[in-house]
Specification:
Elements: H1 2-11, H2 17-25, H3 32-49, H4 55-70, H5 80-92, H6 95-110, H7 114-128, H8 142-152, H9 164-179, H10 185-190, H11 193-197, H12 207-219, H13 226-242, H14 244-250, H15 257-274, H16 288-301, H17 306-325, H18 332-346
Helix pairs in contact: 1-3, 2-3, 3-5, 4-5, 4-6, 5-6, 5-7, 6-7, 7-9, 8-9, 9-12, 12-15, 13-16, 15-17, 16-17, 16-18
């Protein structure tokens, strides 16, 4: 194994690397470990010298790598990740046209499953890693990306536990295209993706991945149309309102701190970027969902974890700023309760006994 590893690493810098590595990957007699090494060498080789390949060579290599990826399921160690990167690097070396070709070809070779979505998720990272990669060049590809993700998620409404990994990978793909691929919220909105994904927020096993995506969406609200931003805020509030009970329960469980932090981060993003998307901010209106957001904000403000409490303050700070322009007397009791929670978090516990070392030192000392 060590000899094979050393040989492949040396081979990576040679002219014959392409044919030898591909020969290893298509050889059924090679072990999974050797094929994993070959996949890693292929990925590294493409990063170093992929730009030097002719168009026809690059296209053939991308097609071959897709075939290797399609046959990598169940391998140990898993060679899917390095092959995914290799496929994307081969495509990115061809510029936006190469990426377009991969987005079209990947579903044909990989189907609509997790492997195809992993390729979509990796593409923005590889494109962003190029010195000449301009986000604007990916704009014509956004519809194709949404179409591919939509095809993979068409059964989301009845998704069972076996589909959760696929949904998480889809969330990662959309998140990467949003943050690094220039995918606008308006495109997600008009394509029905926002409304289609929002119900997954109330699935406990999917909450973390979906909350991360919707937090990023709220962060980008300033780049969206008023219609898209308002729809996003409204639907996030509606879904979180359904989770008020579980969120309140989780706040008392030290083992659920991470999920509470994700809720607080989502609320903070709502507060910082999305609450002022309308002349009458949704959170300040007299609705059940708005009241639920305030209660959830109080739950986070009184959380056992300092990190959750700190994150929740971003939500309250922005809400207080909005009240200066939109006086809402009904929220005064909530701010009074917030003040009480903040004072309690700063006070010593009832059973605290001083040993004398906590006294203020005289300024003259």
């Amino acid at each position: 194994m060590e000899q094979a590893s050393n040989w492949l690493v040396e081979l990576q810098h040679g002219e014959g690397a392409w044919s030898v590595v591909c020969g290893v990957l298509c050889d059924d007699g090679q072990s999974d470990s050797t094929k994993w090494l070959a996949a890693t060498v292929l990925s590294n080789k493409l990063r170093e010298t992929g730009d030097l390949l002719a168009h026809a060579e690059r296209q053939q290599l991308m097609a071959d790598a897709l075939g290797y990826l399609a046959g990598s399921a169940g391998s140990t160690p898993p060679r899917g990740p390095p092959l995914t990167v290799a496929v994307c690097r081969a495509a990115v070396c061809g510029g936006a046209a190469g990426i377009a070709a991969l987005i079209e070809e990947a579903p044909k070779r990989l189907g609509d499953g997790e492997a195809m979505l992993a390729v979509l998720a990796a593409l923005p990272d590889e494109w962003a890693g190029r010195a000449d990669g301009q986000t604007g060049e990916l704009l014509p590809l956004h519809d194709a990306v949404l179409k591919a993700v939509g095809a993979a998620l068409q059964t989301l409404g009845g998704a069972g536990a076996e589909q959760y990994p696929l949904v998480r990978t889809a969330m990662k793909a959309l998140l990467n295209w949003l943050q690094k691929g220039g995918l606008p919220i308006d495109t997600l909105h008009t394509g029905g993706m926002v409304s289609g994904l929002a119900p997954a927020l109330i699935v406990p096993e999917l909450f973390s991945a979906v909350a991360e995506l919707f937090t990023a969406l709220c962060d980008e609200c300033h780049n969206a149309s008023n219609e898209a931003a308002l729809f996003l805020v409204t639907i996030v509030m509606a879904q979180l309102a359904q989770l008020e009970g579980p969120i309140t329960t989780a706040a008392q469980d030290p083992d659920a701190t991470q999920s509470s932090l994700e809720v607080a981060n989502l609320l903070a993003s709502l507060g910082n970027n999305a609450l002022s998307v309308h002349e009458q901010p949704p959170l300040l209106q007299d609705t059940a969902d708005a009241a639920s957001m305030v209660r959830i904000g109080l739950v986070c403000a009184g959380h056992l974890s300092p990190s959750v409490r700190e994150s929740s303050l971003e939500f309250w700070t922005r809400l207080a700023a909005l009240l200066s322009d939109h006086p809402t007397p009904a929220l005064k009791p909530a701010f009074a309760q917030l003040l009480q929670l903040m004072l309690e978090s700063c006070s010593y516990p009832l059973d605290f006994e001083s040993d004398g070392t906590d006294r203020w030192q005289d300024s003259s000392e």
